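step: validate -> pass
step: tokenize input -> pass
step: predict -> running
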Amino acid sequence: MTLQGFIIFLLIGAIAGWLAGKCMRGGGFGLLINIILGILGGILGGWLLGLLGANWAWLGKWYGQIFTSCIGAIIILWVASLFKK
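step: predict -> pass
step: emit ->
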């Protein structure tokens, strides 16, 4: 992975984590947590949507990656909220 690819990877993670924080209660979590949340969400979202056979190619490469990461991050936040209660 090139430096440019790594920076884009982190940027997509940060955007997805921020969007997930806005969709769920609690708001933003700071840049570092948003990046981590987005990256983990991308892994989880990609795996789950792959199991379902979902293909987000029609959204475009960037939009599809952000959408997939955001879905995964929302699931992570939802599961975390179950343990928080």
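step: describe -> The chain is about 80% helix and 0% strand.
step: cleanup -> pass
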